Amino acid sequence: MRDLSQPTVPSRAFYDQLAVETEKRRQANPTATALDPHGGASIQLREELKAHIEALAPQIVALSQGIHAHPEVGYQEFYAADAVAKLLQAHGIEVERASFGMETSLRAQIGGEAAATAAGAVVAADADRSEKQPTIAILCEYDALPGVGHGCGHNVMCANSVGAFLALAELEKSHPGALGGRVILQTTPAEECDTAKEILAQRGMLEGVDAAIQTHSYAYDLVDQAWLGVRRMRVVFHGVSAHAASAPFMGRNALDAVTVAQVGMGLLRQHMLPSDRMHAVVTDGGLVPNVVPERAEMSVIVRSLDAATLRDLVARVEDVFRGAALATGCGMEILTGETTNEMPVRANGPLSQAWVRAQNTVGRTVLPRGVITEVIAAGTDFGNVSQRVPGIHPLIKIAPEGTALHTHEFATAAGSPLGDRAAVDGAWGLASVALDYLSDPQLRQAVRADFEASGGVVDVASFWEK
């Protein structure tokens, strides 16, 4: 008989089977499609850019290691923001701190009209501005998980973005005008605990931006994966208190409503899409057992792979809550944040191909979407960006295959030699994609055409009002 004072150890059978299945899929479809070797930037510029990355490698790794050693949760990334700002300033780059009114957000820019404007200034767009001065944004995360540290590898992702930006800045210094456009570095705090990219987007972060890119740490090199859209809700049930022993019939139990809601969510799971997810916790269930709870509250997250299916699932879940209130005689209110939660990520095809080509040159074999099972899925507020402008969020391997995100094991990997190598390789990948995009009008046209074909600009800010 097992020791009931301890939980059971979760089985790793799924991950063992995943390794077998992944290898089968890898053999059947060994690599993602790479950009034509002759497309994008010139070979000479790419070689010079790569040399800058190699020269910057010690600083890129030092930044990653420093942030890894000082994990900070969302909106508290003071060490990370200061480390990034000081590194940029050491290279002669102006930095706007607390950009768009967010205390731990930074903004800097190079190329194009950047020299004539203050860092972070938004350049007005005109009808054909993207061809006069194309602009690409490199986004940068650096928040950690409470109790886990950098179990999502944001220290490596930050080093990728900052390293790419510095290499492009060095290229522009040595060849003024070589970029052919503008590059913005925008740090985006609090990815783990909030939807800061949505807040920043609504405040103007993407004005004048034609495309946006950043990486994500992972246990595989993967061009794209399933990124679920997310809707967060607080559900409050209002009942009537009563003496639980002498007059329970005079009460309306708000905690009962929560129980009915949880049962309804459980039954709904049978009828969801395989990739859909729901999770909830009870944040208020009453105070003492001899008083019928007059108030109870749930914190709920609903996820789906597509914007349309997310909207449908949320509507069905909300009906479950209404039914729970009706069944128990309670009142009910659904509370949501001021900003839209995470939208599904739309990965741009031509930009993804540029990433694959760059990673191939440093010995990384990037797997196409579908090789890794999409049973494993997560959400990110980069989805809110990718619904507004063309973007990519490729995954770079920093940990042994099968290492799960948001674990102590992944946090350890984020500070390991694998993480250090990924910090440099990812910086090269982002810098190369940005240079290809700015250098090649045909690539930019292909990027835009792919974006329009996948649905074009979505009114993210008003998505839940429709």
TrEMBL record:
<dbReference type="Pfam" id="PF01546">
    <property type="entry name" value="Peptidase_M20"/>
</dbReference>
<dbReference type="GO" id="GO:0016805">
    <property type="term" value="F:dipeptidase activity"/>
</dbReference>
<protein>
    <recommendedName>
        <fullName>Peptidase M20 dimerisation domain-containing protein</fullName>
    </recommendedName>
</protein>
<dbReference type="GO" id="GO:0046657">
    <property type="term" value="P:folic acid catabolic process"/>
</dbReference>
<dbReference type="InterPro" id="IPR011650">
    <property type="entry name" value="Peptidase_M20_dimer"/>
</dbReference>
<dbReference type="GO" id="GO:0071713">
    <property type="term" value="F:para-aminobenzoyl-glutamate hydrolase activity"/>
</dbReference>
<dbReference type="InterPro" id="IPR052030">
    <property type="entry name" value="Peptidase_M20/M20A_hydrolases"/>
</dbReference>
<dbReference type="InterPro" id="IPR017144">
    <property type="entry name" value="Xaa-Arg_dipeptidase"/>
</dbReference>
<feature type="domain" description="Peptidase M20 dimerisation">
    <location>
        <begin position="229"/>
        <end position="323"/>
    </location>
</feature>
<dbReference type="InterPro" id="IPR036264">
    <property type="entry name" value="Bact_exopeptidase_dim_dom"/>
</dbReference>
<dbReference type="InterPro" id="IPR002933">
    <property type="entry name" value="Peptidase_M20"/>
</dbReference>
<dbReference type="InterPro" id="IPR017439">
    <property type="entry name" value="Amidohydrolase"/>
</dbReference>
<dbReference type="Pfam" id="PF07687">
    <property type="entry name" value="M20_dimer"/>
</dbReference>
<dbReference type="GO" id="GO:0005737">
    <property type="term" value="C:cytoplasm"/>
</dbReference>
